[in-house]
Amino acid sequence: MSIFSELELRYLNEGVSLGRLATIDAQGRPHVVPTGWNYNPTTDTIDIGGRDFANTRKFRNVQANPKVGFVVDDVLPPWKPRCVQVRGTAEALLSAAWPDGSARDAIIRITPEKVVSWGLEDLAGTAGE
């Protein structure tokens, strides 16, 4: 069973491809960056990767402190914000399989500990579509 609700999974799989990852730097300050991501149904995690990823500040921050926050959000007109917020523990992996089975040199894999969402009610009537 997933930590994500059915509506949260529907939203995450809807195609919103940009999220914001918050890590903590060596001085204890937050570091927040936009990033691409994928939901991994095999591990029930959020997987984040990118170009030369093992050499990024976010990757180094996770190696030093695994506590992270991650947000995927958007706004529907006229003003209807939707969001899935994930707080959890991340691993900085030097190699891993992406959800589609392809290999990645380095990723951050977030294991959710707490998920909070809002504005997803419009997805309730789309089951099976």
TrEMBL record:
<dbReference type="InterPro" id="IPR052019">
    <property type="entry name" value="F420H2_bilvrd_red/Heme_oxyg"/>
</dbReference>
<dbReference type="InterPro" id="IPR024031">
    <property type="entry name" value="MSMEG_5819/OxyR"/>
</dbReference>
<protein>
    <submittedName>
        <fullName>Pyridoxamine 5'-phosphate oxidase family protein</fullName>
    </submittedName>
</protein>
<dbReference type="Pfam" id="PF01243">
    <property type="entry name" value="PNPOx_N"/>
</dbReference>
<dbReference type="InterPro" id="IPR011576">
    <property type="entry name" value="Pyridox_Oxase_N"/>
</dbReference>
<dbReference type="GO" id="GO:0016627">
    <property type="term" value="F:oxidoreductase activity, acting on the CH-CH group of donors"/>
</dbReference>
<dbReference type="InterPro" id="IPR012349">
    <property type="entry name" value="Split_barrel_FMN-bd"/>
</dbReference>
<feature type="domain" description="Pyridoxamine 5'-phosphate oxidase N-terminal">
    <location>
        <begin position="12"/>
        <end position="114"/>
    </location>
</feature>
<dbReference type="GO" id="GO:0070967">
    <property type="term" value="F:coenzyme F420 binding"/>
</dbReference>
<dbReference type="GO" id="GO:0005829">
    <property type="term" value="C:cytosol"/>
</dbReference>
<keyword id="KW-0560">Oxidoreductase</keyword>
